[in-house]
Amino acid sequence: MNTFGNIFKLTSFGESHGVAIGGVIDGCPSNFKLDLDLIQAELNRRRPGQSRIVTQRKEGDQVKFLSGIFEGKTTGAPIGFIIENENQKSKDYSHIADSFRPSHADFTYSQKYGHRDYRGGGRSSARETASRVVAGAIAQQILSSLGIEIRSFVKSVGHLDLQLDQSEIDLSNIDSNIVRCPDEKMANEMISLIEMIRKEGDTIGGTIQCIIKNCPVGLGEPVFGKLHAALGHAMLSINAVKGFEIGSGFEGTLHKGSEQNDLFNNGSNGIHTLTNNSGGIQGGISNGENIYFNVAFKPVATIMQDQKSIDKEGNEVIITGKGRHDPCVLPRAVPIVDAMAAIVILDFYLLDQARKIAR
Amino acid sequence: MNTFGNIFKLTSFGESHGVAIGGVIDGCPSNFKLDLDLIQAELNRRRPGQSRIVTQRKEGDQVKFLSGIFEGKTTGAPIGFIIENENQKSKDYSHIADSFRPSHADFTYSQKYGHRDYRGGGRSSARETASRVVAGAIAQQILSSLGIEIRSFVKSVGHLDLQLDQSEIDLSNIDSNIVRCPDEKMANEMISLIEMIRKEGDTIGGTIQCIIKNCPVGLGEPVFGKLHAALGHAMLSINAVKGFEIGSGFEGTLHKGSEQNDLFNNGSNGIHTLTNNSGGIQGGISNGENIYFNVAFKPVATIMQDQKSIDKEGNEVIITGKGRHDPCVLPRAVPIVDAMAAIVILDFYLLDQARKIAR
Amino acid sequence: MNTFGNIFKLTSFGESHGVAIGGVIDGCPSNFKLDLDLIQAELNRRRPGQSRIVTQRKEGDQVKFLSGIFEGKTTGAPIGFIIENENQKSKDYSHIADSFRPSHADFTYSQKYGHRDYRGGGRSSARETASRVVAGAIAQQILSSLGIEIRSFVKSVGHLDLQLDQSEIDLSNIDSNIVRCPDEKMANEMISLIEMIRKEGDTIGGTIQCIIKNCPVGLGEPVFGKLHAALGHAMLSINAVKGFEIGSGFEGTLHKGSEQNDLFNNGSNGIHTLTNNSGGIQGGISNGENIYFNVAFKPVATIMQDQKSIDKEGNEVIITGKGRHDPCVLPRAVPIVDAMAAIVILDFYLLDQARKIAR
Amino acid sequence: MNTFGNIFKLTSFGESHGVAIGGVIDGCPSNFKLDLDLIQAELNRRRPGQSRIVTQRKEGDQVKFLSGIFEGKTTGAPIGFIIENENQKSKDYSHIADSFRPSHADFTYSQKYGHRDYRGGGRSSARETASRVVAGAIAQQILSSLGIEIRSFVKSVGHLDLQLDQSEIDLSNIDSNIVRCPDEKMANEMISLIEMIRKEGDTIGGTIQCIIKNCPVGLGEPVFGKLHAALGHAMLSINAVKGFEIGSGFEGTLHKGSEQNDLFNNGSNGIHTLTNNSGGIQGGISNGENIYFNVAFKPVATIMQDQKSIDKEGNEVIITGKGRHDPCVLPRAVPIVDAMAAIVILDFYLLDQARKIAR
Predict the structure, then answer these.
(1) Helix (H) or strand (E) holding D134
(2) How far is residue C18's CA from residue B77's CA, in Å, rounded to a whole number?
(3) Sequence-ordered strand ranges (E) for B274-334
(4) Whether the predicted pLDDT of A96 surpasses 90
(5) What phi, psi does A204 have (nearest 5°)?
(6) Domains in chain B, please, with CATH?
(7) Do A236 and B233 touch (CB under 8 A)?
(8) Which stretch of DSSP H or E encloses residue A80?
(9) Which of A27, A4, A31, A78 is nearest to A353 (CA)?
(10) Around Cβ A17, how many Cβ atoms within 10 Å?
(11) pLDDT for res C121
């Protein structure tokens, strides 16, 4: 299941230390002029080595398009692309060829498939998400031409949680700091925390919030294609994600209906709800309000500390962290959340459009 | 998108106040002896009027099978079934034909489709989930024959949260009380709270936890078919669900990798992890530990209090709660969570099996 | 695999002698006013007992809609429907419970599924196609509102082949005789042949031609979604179909490129091809010319003569034809070909529309 | 729709004169040792320039695997691969940038997509089928390990038709001549005909027959997943294919049921049918006999003669054949038919296996 989407579809391939990763985007609207620099810019937001709080691995992460684009515009043919793996350092991983790193996919891949590319996690590596960023960046350009804007940011790192109301958040500030939290004071605290965690050879989790503005009313395909179910699926498919909540989410379970219901109002700017606990989706269909949701990332499993584990014969071994890993994956995960959100929204935009026949 | 699943697939149809709801189950293994009473028993767990803390609507919810079962056993042909709508009382809903109830799907369905069956929420009604319970009950029987057990229970209602360790929970107690919380003391508190809320004409949310035991190692199809992504999709497609978390979920974002990692151990009962923050799934694939996840339900949107809203011309109206609704949907949602979990697990069991060729 | 289509999807269920057959139509455009009488009229064209040259079984074949239609219009919700099996006469089939009829699906179903509803062929009976006619009749109404017309007719029965040029065929004559061949003289010959075959207790095959007029340019989704590949798949899924050819088909293999190529011409009525050997589809995409294709039906396998066969223990048995079967399935298959063509064309119309974003 | 298959899936990308063509194979069984030379050998059977009766274009057609194979064995991860386009000579095609070649996809692609890579047919070029040969060659190796053998050959070129009974055909002779007809005398006649046609600057069509031996009983998924419907879909998706027939096909429509029915017999080698007019498939499910079908290829549209056509403004133009094209595509299409057949059979093998649960 390496394909995602219904109409606008990404098929992804590639291992962390193989020849290349890449993908095929099928169902992209034709005759659309793409800005290839913007696509690379999104990849650069995900790239290792971009700041002192992320892994210092060097990967150029240059995307190379093989098909589907002609004279700068999409042709409606599938867009094939690759990103070559430059900095493979496979030696780093020989020590884990026969052992199972704790809370990694080594054990489950080995059991399921009987044969496993252990180098850097192989297919289970988050390196795969670069392909999603390519597809998402294309989707974002098309959505942008339709006026739809998607912006994600780091909401929390460990206990440091930006609990501002959405109206107080300045989304234009997201990339103004290396942790991608739009509040400068909180961003600095997060950066300090991550640096401390890194010195301990440890890692830390956090949450990303994504906000989608100007989504038209009507996207989402009940019953099983509810828009937030598709967004949840998309987010939960990202490495290290353990939770998803839309609108008031888990917090909303503490409240009464009389407090949670979003009342409709027909004001000067048209029909809107006075509150937005629904998170912009009602009955699985967008209602024109901002869509927002939170995504929970566990701490990265690779730590620079010795851990007990077992090898494939079941013998006890000590796993010693090596290589250059992220103390906190959140800053680099922001463009991945953006990308998956964009793929879902464009896909459901196209689906909704399919059934609107002129009468 | 009224079909769910890859190999074992449910297609669902029907409105709250139409002739009947029903479904078609495709891809069911053949030659399997079904216990039809057990299927009806699961429907009865979801049925209105089962206790004093749920809606007092009367619906027999008798499932009638039309195909796919012959001489008590599945034939491999699609299993068609219907549940007739007995107690339609469509008059109850005439007052909302032209108005949009707050935090319901009235507005979004109306905008998306241009024409809407407003009676009782029509297609957006949670009545649709009865079809899922039928399919899920069949899946559960097949899983049970494979030794896999799925048990869900009410973990929290409002602020009342059963924060026990899994080892302390007696899953055999789930149906020993009307709220379906396996801890008697907590159950009584929840029941009191729900009764109080009902008297206020209000509603309250909560969470359900689902535990899956004896799931074999190897279920899940990375990258986009991660097992918890499929479970999340399934749960988020249930009416009123606003959040999903697997394993330590949102709580786990507060901790360090050194605290969260689940260390492997080869003990007397084979390879297991010493902790289970992963929730039984690593890299999107089941690892043999208990799978567990939480599902957040918002408070029911229909309250017995006056609420401001608008009609389809945009005029302000007052919506006055009528009919017989649930003050808390959680007790009746337990079999729905069970059902969707069973559909996912069986589907991925079959998928995993597909690719295991003898060599 | 009881679901067909991408956007406009039919899921079919039911056995020949079960409680009912039926289906679920998902993805139907909403707010479309349906003429239910026209749907029943198409079913009546497929119904047993309609004339002296078809089976004399009595089945009312009354469709009953359960959902998805409200106040006469589609709501966008799935359209569930059933057709009850009235005239089951299961006794007729007890003699074949343990034996395999030649060139039927008895043997293969038995081997594949391990358990089989043998009554009247069960799931393998062509009775299932009634569900397709319902969905196709709905698709035809929507297509008709878009100006697209689909007409099928019996082109050949045995060696009697209507080898007229399309321009010489009067499609309005199709239903003017009981064999559904638009040429009166040929129709009479076909009827005589079928009556003779019936007296012999034998059966005969033939071909149906389908013509689709006013299909807009641009339907079809290369590479694997070529329009004629989808049409071929649809036709080959009909019981007894053994061949499909588009445009000049098999005959075209005998000719040279210089003879087969369809030259473009920009005449008074716009761009058209001077010939139409392509059958209205080039590169898998409709080109605006008439789409036409032929479908080959083998003779019905059930004959009123004794045939040697085996039972499930492998013992030799004599199968003696009983019941009321069709000497020639072609006249009743015409509305089935119409239906499957309509489902494909509407589905690809919606697919094509999905990707046309405003720019 | 550039993805084909249900469990074993090929996603294809690439244009004739882009950077590369390629594909992604998802769902391949893991831990299978691949012979990469055999894959290249199949590509070489499709490659231009392989003999004097095919196009003299030079393309190395070297496949390069990017992922999914580790230490010579499949890992269960998607197998990404590319074939670089070496010999692009895009100048050859500038003359058709603005004109529509007769019976090509130039017009329909242009109308559907609004923007088209005209170089060498772009996405509509049969060059795309090289990706299918790669996936098919992998499928064939897996099928071969299961004892299933797939062999296609040229049955007819124009009127030259090898009308031998299957028992008289020596499938080991297929590659003993450049036209891939297993009868030496007929092969020589075909070669002479193709050479004559080439001298005329013309092209000629023909048919390919495919025979599948040792297919186990039980493959095929009724109703819409009948095995021959899937095979038909697969074949009709190949460039230039206009017809498909299984078993006795169109010829069988001329006969009576008493002549066509395949009688079962329990002989010394188990249960078999005495004849095989069904073509190895009954009720959409394989019955253990040889599966065989014919595929009709129209003559190649590109001829070396002047043809009238129009440009994109609708002006009349003369299209003059240039470049190096095939006078007859049949010899090179044999491995493509093999490949698509193998993909279908493996896919349905895996599907069938999915639902066989141990009880």
Answers:
(1) helix D129-145
(2) 12
(3) 281-282, 285-286, 291-297, 306-311, 316-320
(4) no
(5) -145, 145
(6) 3-358 (3.60.150.10)
(7) yes
(8) strand A79-84
(9) A27
(10) 21
(11) 87
Helix (H, G, I), strand (E, B) or coil at B187: helix
Rounded to an integer, what distance in angstroms lies between the CA atom of residue C206 and that of residue D278?
16
- Touching subunits of A (3+ CB pairs, under 8 Å) are B, C, D
CB A65, CB A36: distance < 8 Å: yes
Q: Which of C22, C30, C113 sits opposite B113 (nearest CB)?
A: C30
Contact assignment for A67 to D3 by CB distance below 8 Å: no
Torsion of CA D116, D120, D125, D127, to 10 degrees: -130
In 3D, which of D9, D12, D1, D134 has the Cα closest to residue D62?
A: D134
Amino acid, res. D339: A
Nearest to A257 by CA among B201, D172, D253: B201
For residue C270, give how far its alpha carbon lies from the nearest alpha carbon of chain D (Å): 9
Count of A–C CB contacts within 8 Å? 56
Residue D122 has its nearest CB partner, among A15, A23, A77, at: A77
Q: Amino acid letter at C357?
A: I
CB under 8 Å to C11, separation ≥6 — which residues?
Answer: B3, B11, B24, B26, B78, C2, C3, C23, C24, C26
Residue D230 CB coordination number (10 Å)? 29
Contact flag D156-C258 (C-beta cutoff 8 Å) = no
CB D235 within 8 A of CB C282: no
Nearest to A318 by CA among A96, A19, A71: A96
Which chain C residues touch D242 with a CB distance below 8 Å?
228, 245-250, 252-253, 279
Name the neighbours of D, counting chains with at least 3 Cβ pairs within 8 A: A, B, C
The answer to whether C7 contacts A355, with C-beta atoms less than 8 Å apart, is yes
D204 near D326, Cβ under 8 Å? no
Q: Which SS3 state, helix, strand or coil, does residue A303 take? A: coil
pLDDT digits (tens, 9 = 90+) for C222-247: 999 999 999 999 999 999 999 999 99
Q: Which stretch of A6-10, B184-188, B264-268, C19-23 has the lowest confidence by average pLDDT? A: B264-268
Segment (H or E) for A1: none
Q: Is 0.95 topped by the overall pTM?
A: yes
Strand arrangement of the beta sheet that strand C316-320 belongs to: C99-100, C306-311, C316-320
Report the mean per-residue pLDDT for chain A: 93
Which pLDDT score is estimated for A356? 87
- Residue in chain C closest to D305 (alpha carbons) equals C258
Cβ–Cβ under 8 Å, residues A218 and B112: yes
The one-character DSSP state at B29 is P
Q: ω before D223 within 30° of 0 (cis)?
A: yes
Please tell me the distance from the alpha carbon of residue C191 to that of residue A349, in angstroms, as a whole number: 52
Chains that touch C (3 or more CB pairs under 8 A): A, B, D
**CA-only gyration radius of chain D, Å:** 21
- For CA atoms C100, C106, C111, C114, the dihedral sign is negative
d(CA A150, CA B143): 41
B93 contacts B17 by C-beta, under 8 angstroms: yes
Two structure tokens written together for B204: 């309250």
**pLDDT tens by residue, C56-66:** 877 789 999 99
A283:B242 CB<8 A = no
At D256 the three-state DSSP class reads strand
Helices (H) and strands (E) in chain C, counts: 7, 19
Provide ipTM, 2 decimals. Answer: 0.97
Tell me the nearest-neighbour CA distance from D44 into chain A, angstroms.
22
Helix, strand, or coil here: B64?
strand
Q: How far is CA C274 from CA C75, C166, C245, C264, D202, in A?
A: 43, 14, 21, 6, 19
Tell me the two tokens of residue C266. 């920009």
